[in-house]
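PROTEIN DATA CARD
Card holder: Acyl-CoA synthetase (AMP-forming)/AMP-acid ligase II
Chain length: 520
Origin: Micromonospora chokoriensis
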Amino acid sequence: MDLPFVVATLTRRGVLTPGSPIRVAAQLNALRRWGWSLAGELRQAAARDPGRTAVIDEAGVELTYHDLLDRAERMARSMRAGLGVQAGDRIGVLCRNHHGLIETIAAATLLGVDAVLVNTGLSAAQLGTVAEEQRLRLLVHDDEFADRVLGLPAELHRLDERAREELVAGALPGDLHPPERDGRIIVLTSGTTGTPKGARRPTPGGFGPLVSIIDRIPLHVRDRVMIAAPIFHTWGLAALQMCLALRATIVLHRRFDPTATLAALTANRCDALFAVPVMVQRLMEVPPPDPRPSLTVVAVSGSALPGGLAPKFMDVYGDVLYNLYGSTEVSWASIAGPQDLRQAPTTAGRPPHGTRLELLDDDGRPVPDGRVGRIFVGNEMLFEGYTSGASRETRDGLLDTGDLGRLNADGLLFVDGRADDMIVSGGENVFPSEVEDLLAQLPQVREVAVIGVPDPEYGQRLSAFLALHPGETLDPEAVREYVRHYLARFSVPRDVIYVKYLPRNATGKVLARELRRYYG
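Structure generated from the sequence above:
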């Protein structure tokens, strides 16, 4: 990434604001010695702004950057001295969003240990498989998951919240030095179709990844940011990394509740909110507070924005919505800002600076604008492969996202869905997401999912699952006629099924396998 662009962006966002020469020197020295790992980002923040509030969580805990680093170092020393954890080991982290989660990940990277971020929605059986496949040495978990970890092997050491606090409190004095190897953060894929795979996240090599995002999403140094997206997910983790780099104050709640979130945004004077799309949808289902939060950024990622949601949200909370399209494997691919979302509410936007995006056919040739192709992405933060040794198809340095999409004449990207979600009905290619976006615009519909199911006559057919707002009704034939009016006949769902709510995983993605159980 070219230096003038980096300097201009960092200046614009306040990163290069002059400060105490002693603290600036300490900050730069921390980055020189510890690099851009989570440990390095935390150390540079503590060196530059030791007394600034780093974390506020709903339990009333409020830690400065000095306190947060001190607790992470204490935990690291105790894990090393008391539990024998050392560089190259892997520890599992089964925690919701709170200060202990940040301390645990930071402690692992201080030691050169790999931290496996475990999805809180995994079953006990899936958790056992993850522990075995990832060869976990230690599992740090919240108290609420005590029953779920009972069946794990006896030799796997477990730390609940009390034990973790005892490690922090009972740490022996000593120094920590940069490890010989960087501790990797391993994010598990969303797991909507079975046991998730571990994806190794690279350590940033400098300001480039931060600059790519904050150039398009206007975050600033010392912002106050609520991270509602789960930190075990790529988007929540990215939010944490950006917040540490920007020395932000981070507000955390263990569980998302729309009313509590709006209250926390106001009470903590938050400038930004990181969320997944279903959370934004839930915020629209409760009355907006008076006064409304003074947000300048609401950044979402993790799944597609439902059709019509973006302009409705911005009509209430202002033109502050930013939609990042990416994945665990490619990190980011494109970003849509408020102007893009006003113009085209379902767009994924444009690739940020330093990112290459191409739409290719099955033979690797670029497809023309308007034609559907496979989405390939290249940037500084492509994943390093799955922990199983598997990887993804690459072409000319670009990684296959597994998604299909198209570009319009203005260069805006539209994602049609996973390549394996597309169905062939009567010889026609059909994308369920197109039908979902249309049905989501019906005023009676709270949420919708459309999936393909086997059909003896057409090979496959579409089934629409609708959750309606309380007190609303909608005739199935009226739904079909509505789709027939706007889309081709092969896009009309043969089945219209009403459900109380859609089954989702912990990151808000709809669990299609649960919907298919309707068909036995």
